[in-house]
Amino acid sequence: MKQSVASSDPDLSAPADRQAEVAAMRAVRMASRVDAVSPVRSARLVHVKNSVRLTPNMHRVTLHGDGLADFPACHEGAHVKIMLPAPAQSERDFARQIAEGPKRPITRTYTIRHHRPDVNELDIDFALHPDGRACRWAVTAAAGDFIAIAGPSAKKMTDFSASWFLLTADMTAIPAAAAVLEDMPDSAVGHAVFEIASDEDRQPVNAPPGIDIEWVVGNGCAVPCTCQVDAVRDLSWRDGAPGVFIAGESGAMKAVRQFLCEERGIDRRCMYASAYWKIGMREDQHRKLKALEATQQPKG
Fold this sequence. Notes:
single chain; alpha/beta; six-stranded antiparallel β-barrel; 8 helices; Elongation Factor Tu (Ef-tu), domain 3; Rossmann fold
């Protein structure tokens, strides 16, 4: 008969449910450590060239500078981490902080909307909401102001071999979704459902002629909204399997994903689905929650 051997590591000797809890807590701790990493070795110091309001609730900041000289091309729709200086912090002190630490600047995640490598420029679009530190920085940014960026990530969707395409996004994810549409071949067909804060928040998107874009007005950033999943339910379903992009607020994204998986039989592994934010949470809080949820996902 096998004997149980007590481990000096309480994580290893715990019951299965406790081990799962420990694994989840480890994931949260790892996510927490991101904010404490020092120094930020991949960061690039960049400056503001222009800051303009695109729509009532979308603001664009154009970044430029020698720090973008070797920034990877063709990454529109990928994300970068933007690092914000403290109020009244000098550029010299900020540059030292991102190079040496000991504390990481406030960091948020945003999408590359446009990149013009010939002139070392990036456009970052900010969906405005009242409690966002990055939004407050963006709307007051002036030419010559500085921040740092790190990245880019991989692009969100690059396989355009599907029979047709379905994209849903709120204003935080429209920059990424629009970049995906602009990467598609002209022959692409399908639907895009974009949730906006007001009718005036519609913006030009250079989508293929066969992509129908439906703009739906939501409830704002503080109240859950079903307008995206309602619009998807009402679509005329096309033949063949779609290529799927779903991104935005956590609850809205999950509702669309659940409908597609449970009622349309789409394999969730065959779609890009990402919660960019969650009502009532800061990005750092949401990142920790996502790390915890990832440990609870069924395998296979």
